[in-house]
Each structure stands twice: as C-alpha cells, then as structure tokens.
Design a protein that fits this description.
It contains 7 helices and 7 strands. With 234 residues, it is α/β, with parallel strands linked by helices. The chain has a 7-stranded parallel β-sheet, sandwiched between helices. α2 packs parallel to α3. The longest helix has 29 residues. The chain starts with a strand and ends in a 5-residue tail after the last strand.
C-alpha cells in the first residue's frame, strides 16, 4: 500500500506539530497548511496562508490538491477567544466562525472529490472539551459545538464513499498558549489542574495519538464520533 498523504491545518503550532511528527513517524507523507512557517523543522511540506482569507485559502487549496493526492485531513487550525456576553465583539465572533467552521468546511470541500474517487478517506476535526460549556468561552464553545454537528452530519453523507469523519476534543493541554492564559502557580491554574482525574495535564502527544487512531485503515467502522482527550475531566 502506498503511504497515505495527510493534510494538517495549523501544523506549525504545538498540537499540530505533534500530529505531524507522529504521522510522519508512522510513514505518512504530511502537508502542513498554516499561517506561519514552523519555528523548528517539521517532516512536512508547508504551505502558508491566512485561513481567515477565503480567496487566498481557495487558491492554496487548489494548488495542494493539484500537487498531492490527499487521503486524510486534520482540521486543527484555530484561535481562542475569551469574553462575556456583555463584552462580546461580533467582529471577533465572526473571525472565530471563519477559522473554526468556514475554513474547516472549505478544506473538506477541497479534498472530498479526491477521497471519494479513491474510495478511502479520513477526516478528523479538533474540537474542545469546552464545547460542554465553560464560563467566559461562550463563542469558543459555540464554534466547537458547531464543528461537532458538522462532523456528525458529514459522516452520514460520506460514509458510503469509504470516508470517515470524527472529532478529537482535548481538555487542558500543555502548550505555550495554555501557559499564557494559565501561568504556573496562578489560582485559576491550580484549580483547573486539580480537577483532572488522572492527576496531570495533557500533552500534545496525547492529542496526536487520538488523531492517529482515527486515521488508521483499521478504524474504518468508526465514524461520526467525538473522543474527549481530557484525563477524565469531561
């Protein structure tokens, strides 16, 4: 069997980099679609684009599918937004919808003709435990819950074509961004981490392992599912 080609969005970040590294270690050819070049060398071909720019995204996706036969798509790119209903910015909310929902759909649209034609495909969306609800994250919860609804409906639509669609939803993960919002020793950090049943924060590799599970050829009977990678916190 030829090595599978996997497209990972947001692959230059901490979680995306871990996904790329694991997939490459497993023999995948990996394409990274990200805003910036990775800070350190990755075993992937990187295409840079602002996924909030619909036209630029369309152009780079057209180039990618012309140059590579994409078998797998991991929609990992995203941004965070903390707000209350009183301080909510509708412009910022729209940005969240653009990158988490519209860009994910746009990437799926681009790769779908190819995976249908080959009769095999895997799509994995990166969600969040916050879709269950968390104070201050109403917009983030909204877009991630929307991504789950998208995934479940799409799973039904493309199942006859040998394509699966699943979601991996992390809880607290040790990344530079997490530490910006939750500094070590801060009261909110201690409270959050003390509520994780397994007794430790998650790693980017924990998320990558779950993604790799859904991408396996042997996972073809699993679709429309959401897997929380949260140490039992969900």
């Amino acid at each position: 069997m030829q090595p599978r080609t996997s497209l990972v969005t947001g692959g230059s970040g901490a979680i995306g980099s871990a996904i790329i590294q694991l997939l490459a270690d497993q023999g995948h050819k990996v394409i990274n679609l990200s805003l910036d070049e990775p800070a350190e060398a990755l075993p992937a071909t990187t295409y840079c684009v602002d996924l909030m720019d619909r036209e630029a995204t369309a152009r780079v996706l057209e180039r990618i599918v012309a140059e590579h036969a994409i078998d797998h798509l991991v929609n990992n790119a995203g941004i965070s937004y903390q707000t209350t209903i009183e301080t909510l910015s509708l412009d910022r909310m729209q940005q969240m919808v653009e990158i988490h929902n519209r860009a994910a759909l746009q990437c799926i649209q681009a790769v779908m003709p190819g995976v249908k034609a080959r009769g095999h495909g895997r799509i994995v969306q990166i969600g969040s435990r916050m879709m269950l609800g968390r104070q201050g994250r109403l917009v983030y919860s909204m877009v991630k819950a929307g991504l789950l609804g998208l995934s479940r409906s799409l799973a039904l639509e493309v199942a006859p074509h040998g394509v699966t669609v699943n979601m991996v939803s992390p809880g607290p993960i040790e990344t530079p961004f997490f530490r910006q919002v939750h500094p070590p020793g801060a009261e909110q950090t201690v409270k959050l981490l003390s509520g994780i049943p397994v007794g430790r924060i998650g790693t980017a590799e924990d998320v990558a392992n779950a993604v790799a599970f859904f991408l396996q050829p042997s996972s073809g009977f699993i679709t429309g599912q959401n897997l929380f990678v949260c140490g039992g916190g969900s």
